[in-house]
Design brief:
By secondary structure, the protein is α+β, with helices and mostly antiparallel strands. The protein contains 4 helices and 11 strands; from the N terminus they run αβαβββββββββαβα.
Length: 205
């Protein structure tokens, strides 16, 4: 009995020592949108300070040498840019393409729910969507894909330069927070309320 009690105690200690899985985040409240928008605005300033640039060409990205961990992703819908942070340090930035008019890339605070290196679209001729990182239950994801035209052109996903998408995929974990701030250049609140809709990742891009 003594050994059984000791074994049970040890088992209990091991269970307590196992870290709990990261909680999924899906917050589209006005407060979350405001917080994400502030993060996106701050990120633009961080890009100038870190990389000496305040803009990028279509399809261009920057990545800090040796950076291999990303603890937070920030997406700016008006600027069509994505920023990768390790703590408070900006380690990467890239041009992106989000939802075109008639679709929506949701603003707010989310987290990476699942990752698939070799995802393919079930609707659009098995089109590749490499390094996909899903952020909500509708299937909206960050993923690689070209072209990056400099304006919103996707079905809702956040389209990244594929080489950047590969680096980001390797550096994040399930649970990594994703802040999506601001509104796309075409945004009209009244029209968006009536027409915008989401599609599943299986049907996107």
């Amino acid at each position: 009995m003594k050994y059984l009690a000791q074994s049970l105690a040890l088992l209990g200690a091991m269970v307590l020592a196992v870290p709990a899985p990261a909680q999924a985040i899906d917050d589209e409240s006005s407060a979350a949108v405001a917080k994400a928008t502030d993060a996106a605005q701050d990120a633009r300033e961080d890009m100038l300070e870190t990389f000496g640039k305040d803009n990028l060409k279509n399809g261009q990205f920057l990545w800090k040498d040796g950076a291999d961990e990303v603890t937070r992703v920030v997406v700016s819908l008006p600027d069509q840019l994505v920023y990768a942070y390790d703590g408070d340090e900006l380690v990467g930035v890239a041009t992106i393409s989000t939802a075109r008019k008639g679709y929506i890339t949701p603003a707010g605070i989310f987290s990476v729910l699942g990752k698939d290196r070799d995802y393919r679209s079930k609707k659009f001729d098995n089109a590749p969507m490499p390094f996909a990182q899903r952020i909500d239950d509708y299937g909206i994801a960050l993923h690689g894909g070209e072209p990056i035209p400099g304006y919103p052109a996707s079905h809702g996903c956040i389209r990244l330069p594929t080489k950047f998408a590969a680096k980001l995929f390797a550096a994040t974990e399930v649970g990594t927070p994703v802040y999506i701030g601001g509104y796309p250049p075409y945004f009209d609140p009244a029209e968006a309320a009536g027409k915008a809709g989401r599609v599943d990742i299986a049907e996107a891009d």
